[in-house]
Design brief:
Layout: E1 2-5, H1 10-20, E2 27-31, E3 37-41, E4 49-53, H2 60-76, E5 81-86, H3 105-116, E6 120-124, E7 139-142, H4 145-155, E8 161-165, H5 171-181, E9 184-191, E10 200-204, E11 211-219, H6 223-234, E12 239-247, H7 253-258, E13 264-268, H8 275-279, E14 283-286, H9 289-300
Parallel strand pairs: 1-4, 4-5, 5-6, 6-7, 8-9, 8-11, 11-12, 12-13, 13-14
Antiparallel strand pairs: 2-3, 9-10
Helix pairs in contact: 1-9, 4-5
The protein binds ribose-5-phosphate (R5P).
The site of ribose-5-phosphate has 14 residues, from β11 and α6.
Length: about 300
């Protein structure tokens, strides 16, 4: 087997390769003068089981194109099987038509990856589990919950925690964490009664005196998280910590988090943390390298991946 990486997550890719006890495949992924992407695979891959690790995070379009072009290069170089390892699958938030004339970008991107020549996909905490079905090739959607719950047990007094979903859509994910921590579950229900009126945050569940853990798949602007944290504190929560798989953290999100009342935000390295993230006093990164590495290993040796979560 061989594992290659684009430019999105070099650090994670190296750690995954270390877990597999193989060197990272040698490839040249750079830009032409006009910023077109240039890819050259610099070792023989004929008949090999190849993995390409690349998140479609910021800059999303460049990273997506790098992934597609690397898959194309491997296919034309006669790789036996190509697995796209996508720790963060971007373009996932337009996954249905909420109104007329809306695209389903998640399906379009799934088609592009398949069309480029991927035989399998390995990803983590898809924004919506059903995006798995947008790929007509085998797709494994890993869960970060085991990594996050282990971290929570190490860093928090789990006797007094209440797991909270920041919106109704995230209840299944929150329930999975609550089950592992043997805790109760609360839900923040966002309501906007009329267009233009500000959102009202109703908290379903008694969070008074509890150390709340908010869990979500994505933090982008930080709005959802900070508003939910404020609502919980207003309802008497003692503290609010957040566990979020994908730290998109665009615009002024890091500043928003550092100046918020959050005790801590814990994210994974599915997206390479920027220097601002690394310097933030209340943001911590836990690694998914072992989880991804083990899933890659099991895929290569045709072993069960789902049993990783038993
Ligand atoms: C929404 O359904 C997602 O699970 C996240 O809650 C959302 O993408 C977070 O975005 P932001 O940080 O910009 O509020």
């Amino acid at each position: 087997m061989k594992i290659f990486a684009g430019n999105s997550n070099e650090t994670l890719a190296k750690q995954v390769a270390e877990h597999l006890d193989i060197p990272l495949g040698v490839a040249n992924v750079r830009r032409f003068a006009d910023q077109e992407i240039f890819v050259e695979i610099l070792e023989n891959v004929r008949g090999e089981d190849c993995f390409v690790l690349q998140s479609t995070s910021f800059p999303a379009n460049d990273n997506l194109m790098e992934l597609l072009i690397m898959i194309d290069a491997l296919r034309r170089a006669s790789a036996r099987r190509i697995t796209a390892v996508i720790p963060y699958f971007g373009y996932a938030r337009q996954d249905r038509k909420p109104g007329p004339r809306a695209p389903i970008s998640a399906k379009l991107v799934a088609n592009m990856i398949t069309e480029a020549g991927a035989d399998r996909v390995l990803t983590l905490d898809l924004h919506a589990a059903q995006i798995q079905g947008f790929f007509d090739i085998p797709t494994d959607n890993l869960f970060a919950v085991p990594v996050l719950s282990r971290d929570a047990k190490e860093h928090l007094d789990v006797q007094n925690v209440m797991v909270v979903s920041p919106d109704v859509g995230g209840v299944v994910r929150a329930r999975a964490l609550a089950k592992r921590l043997d805790s109760l579950l609360a839900i923040v229900d966002k309501r906007r009664d009329k267009p233009g009126e500000s959102e009202v945050m109703n908290v379903i569940g008694d969070v008074k005196g509890k150390d709340c853990i908010l869990i979500d798949d994505i933090i982008d602007s930080g709005g959802t998280l900070c508003n939910a944290a404020e609502a919980l504190l207003k309802m008497g929560a003692t503290s609010v910590t957040a566990y979020i798989t994908h730290g998109v953290l665009s615009g002024g999100a890091v500043a928003r988090i550092t100046s918020s009342k959050l005790k801590e935000l814990v994210i994974t390295d599915s997206i390479e943390p920027t220097s601002a993230v690394q310097a933030a006093s209340n943001i911590r990164v836990v690694s998914i390298a072992e989880l991804m590495g083990e899933a890659v290993k099991r895929t290569a040796s045709e072993k069960s991946v789902s049993s990783l979560f038993d």
